[in-house]
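Fill-in record for ABC transporter ATP-binding protein.
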Amino acid sequence: MTTTTDVRTAVVARGLTKVYGEGDAAVRALRGIDVAFATGAFTAIMGPSGSGKSTLMHCLAGLDSVTDGEVRIGDVEITRLTDKQLTLLRRDRVGFIFQAFNLLPTLTAEQNIRLPLEIASRQADQVLFDRVIETVGLRDRLKHRPGELSGGQQQRVAVARALIGKPQVIFADEPTGNLDSRSGAEVLDFLRRSVRELGQTIVMVTHDPVAASYADRVVFLRDGSLVSELHNPTPQTVLDTLVALEA
Ligand SMILES: Nc1ncnc2c1ncn2[C@@H]1O[C@H](COP(=O)(O)OP(=O)(O)OP(=O)(O)O)[C@@H](O)[C@H]1O
């Protein structure tokens, strides 16, 4: 598996190890993972329940500390940063999309989308804003509050919010977990278009072989180790790989 750190690589982990607890209660959630995520690619992380998917994403995104090893986002070795530096890095370079859309209910869709930039005192790039709004099809919903939007529309607002800051990478944790299959397909299609058309880099954790098939590449975890990967996956090849892993 490649671990090169050239400009085409957005995120790299080397020897990434995460142990929860100590002594007899210790759980080795990640056992020395080497993985690289290419810039402008859509990668899915899959594996059986408890295999370490969420832990890997949290360590890659600087949301959780690592026990050993390194993580680099762009040219920044995040495992060496102080908490304050990490907060700034997450704010300025990383986008997040969660299963629960995490929108502020009193703000309109547009205000939710612009909020992270406002917090960071950054100017929205109006050309990008318009392009993102067109891409996710929200033009006629900008003045609506989240409670007036469907689940799929709310998640599209969350996708737009993540895209608008032009982060080096977006981490998505089960982004379609709360959506019906049609809304889920729409959101996945927007994620894929943001990679193809805006050059965005996306790393997504999912249980769903259909969701994973929207990615360019799928990496598979088992018991805290990376054990397999697929390029240009289909739902069937993802399912076959999962079945083989769980055998
Ligand atoms: N805070 C924690 N304290 C102790 N053990 C933990 C903690 N978080 C996760 N674990 C353990 O680490 C291992 C990996 O968990 P993780 O949540 O990363 O797996 P996952 O593949 O995302 O699972 P799922 O698909 O069920 O969400 C599991 O054995 C889990 O019980």
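KEY FINDING: The first strand starts at residue 9 and ends at 20.
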